[in-house]
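thread: overnight batch results

M.L. [08:02]
morning all. the overnight job finished for the chain we discussed friday. pasting input first so we're all looking at the same thing
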Amino acid sequence: MQTGTVTTHTSPEGIATISFFHPSHNSLPGALLTQLADTITRVGRQEGTKVIILKSEGAKTFCAGASFDELMAIENEAQGLEFFSGFAKVINACRTSPKIIIGRVQGKAIGGGVGVAAATDYCFATSQASVKLSELVVGIGPFVVGPAVERKIGNAAFAQLALDAAEFRSAEWAQEKGLYAQVLETEEALDAAVLAFATKLAAYNPEALTDLKRVIWAGTEHWDQLLVERAGISGRLVLSDFTRQAIQKFKSK
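M.L. [08:03]
and the structure it wrote out:
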């Protein structure tokens, strides 16, 4: 099983870019989730970092969410908890980072990918960046990413996205609901907008940005425990016959 990669680069201006990649539509197996969370935490603590850009490689898919191969390999609730806690680690790493995180979403965000986008502080996307919370289709549910998504788009929109699990919502819908701050037509325009905004933020008082980040995420201090509890729900459900059969059917398409 290929594990994917996480790479980082920091410009002289203090703009740190964290990029993840997996050959299977940027899906996120457990090892990659842990590496991504650790990298976000480490880069956010570095003295030279003023702002973080979080992105993925490739063109068509920002992130396809959980790795189906790894889901099928889960044999007990402890393994299930460990896997889904990976998404909790990434969301909490974004939440607790002292640096503002800018999301760059160039393509479709599915399942956990929507959660990653929602965990950023300000998110840019292209018009191709439609969103879908597909977990219910395979018998689970967006339990771990739910708090991050609901925080951004509200309970009603989250319910629509979670229950209508087989359908994509457009990037424009996601912008209207607050997941995306700006939607651009092309990747070139996306990159220009992300860089311009990051450059602007990097010139601001870093102490003020850190304090503002704390204010933006006020009321989420209990997420360290909450997201792990949610991971336990998914970890239990993934063992059901319904979920096993649904994942196998999805993989065979």
